[in-house]
Specification:
single chain; 467 residues; alpha+beta; four-stranded antiparallel sheet; 18 helices; DUF2252
């Protein structure tokens, strides 16, 4: 142990009150009311140019699919427009309180996942853009998405405001609680089934039924539970099912190298990132099949593969997702990060935010791409707003869950007492986020119309099929 590290352990930590005071003092640099600001710079780079720049690093044949998914509605456009949002935030006031940002914090990026002990918990479930940065970037993206989603449900601004206030108030309340939670206990603090039903859903029967459905689906969403949906019997054994162009067996990668060579390089580097016991476990499995897969909205066009393994036999399946990790959309604004590769950045961020993620979570690389790898199915369950998901009656309850999950993530990776000191116990932050979310929803609507016009003019490619 170096003397500097040893001395850091000996140095006295500031008290909870000192850290609260530190957070309050930051209000003098960036007051909470200033977070309401949403002004577009005069020489703003157009959202179309930002999207076309991103397309340059994507698989060309998938870019029209990405644009088609973004064109579905204003919320879908917002989901795919994380780079646009980051660009707009970069010129706005922001308190210098760092956490591990999720980076793409919107209301459809939450869900259920399994801890290493196979305990089903609720939290953030997308980390492609994760990076250390100022906490308000996550909070602003989440509240703006909530306002846009509320409009998508056909609700007025007052309803959207109530959703935003539920998120921010819950976020503040749990930061205050986490500020007084012992550090080791905080690392063991998850939003599990018991806490969900007791503290978040309350007496809303509709929310309870929806939650029960989501939980049941997540519990069935395991390697063995989905093998019949993802594979079919062939004379050669179980094989992954093709759904062109979204799921396909292909032999050549986008850079002209055989996929077998790419997978070999990826898995060799990936196994080195795993703990010894997980590496030993993985080596017991045999690769059976692989496909290239289109995923998400913002991620469409990045390279993604699903690899099907078998252990003892077909009754012992394992599905791994190998996903390309490109530079975070936040990187131009928070450039000083300690990660050697983007795959390491994503995996480190997930560990910091989730605390006990997938035991097979790791990172690797090929000559062409940085990658991160995780199980495709391990009691995972997503949440959607509208169209068979959370409806207008349930959104207020789930909004509290979103605020709670964000507070849990920020408390794990940042200093909850400093955060709580800055956020305070009044509604000053809530008021600012309401004003910001209203203004950004209007900007997003304008950008969406510009996007549709660019598709109509042919400047932006767009698939004609419904994917």
């Amino acid at each position: 142990m170096s003397s500097d590290l040893y001395n850091s352990f000996l140095s006295k930590n500031p008290s909870i009150q000192d850290r609260f005071d530190q957070g309050k003092a930051i209000r003098k640099q960036v007051n909470r009311s200033s977070l309401a600001e949403m002004t577009v710079v005069k020489k703003r780079q157009t959202p179309i140019d930002l999207l076309l720049d991103q397309a340059k690093t994507r698989i060309p044949e998938y870019v029209p699919i990405r644009h088609a998914r973004m064109a579905a509605n204003p919320f879908a456009f917002f989901r795919g427009g994380a780079a646009i949002f980051a660009y707009d935030l970069s010129t706005l006031p922001s308190p210098p309180i760092s956490v591990q940002l999720g980076g793409d914090m919107h209301v459809s990026n939450f869900g259920f996942f399994s801890t290493t002990e196979h305990r089903l918990v609720f939290g953030i479930n997308d980390f492609d853009e994760t990076l250390p940065g100022h906490f308000d970037w996550d909070l602003k993206r989440l509240t703006a998405s909530a306002m846009i989603a509320a409009h998508g449900l056909g609700q007025d601004q007052a309803y959207g405001e109530s959703i935003v206030r539920a998120i921010v108030k819950t976020y503040r309340q749990y930061l205050l609680e986490y500020a007084h939670t012992p550090y080791i206990e905080l690392m063991r603090t998850y939003i599990d089934e018991k806490h969900l039903l007791k503290h978040a859903i309350n007496a809303n029967v509709f929310s309870q039924k929806t939650l029960a459905k989501i939980l049941l689906k997540a519990k069935k969403n395991t390697n063995t539970g989905v093998i019949g949906k993802l594979t079919k019997s062939t004379p050669e054994g179980q094989r992954l099912i093709d759904h062109p162009p979204l799921v396909e067996h292909i032999e050549i990668s986008i850079h002209g190298r055989k996929i077998t060579a790419l997978l070999d390089a990826a898995l060799n580097t990936y196994t080195q990132s795993l703990l010894v016991d997980r590496r030993n476990l993985l080596m017991r499995y045999k690769i059976i099949d692989w496909v290239r897969k289109v995923v998400g909205v913002g991620s469409v066009g990045t390279s993604c593969w699903v690899i099907y393994f078998e252990g003892l036999d077909a009754s012992d399946p394992l599905f791994l997702q190998v996903k390309e990790a490109q530079a975070s959309v936040l990187a131009p604004y928070f450039p000083h990060t300690p990660f050697a590769t983007h795959g390491e950045r994503v995996v480190t961020g997930q560990h910091l935010i989730q605390g006990a993620p997938d035991p097979f979570l790791g990172f690797g690389s090929t000559l062409e791409n940085d990658l991160y790898i995780r199980q495709l199915r391990d009691m995972k369950g997503g949440i959607s707003i509208g169209e068979g998901g959370i409806d207008v009656h349930e959104f207020p309850d789930f909004a509290k869950l979103f605020g709670w999950a964000l507070a849990n993530a920020h408390a794990r990776s940042g200093d909850p007492a400093v955060l709580a000191g800055y956020c305070g116990q009044s509604e000053a932050l809530d008021d600012a986020m309401v004003q910001f979310s209203i203004a950004y929803a209007q900007q997003n609507a304008s950008d969406y119309e510009t996007f549709l016009l660019a598709i109509k003019s042919g400047k932006v490619s767009c698939a004609t099929r419904d994917f």
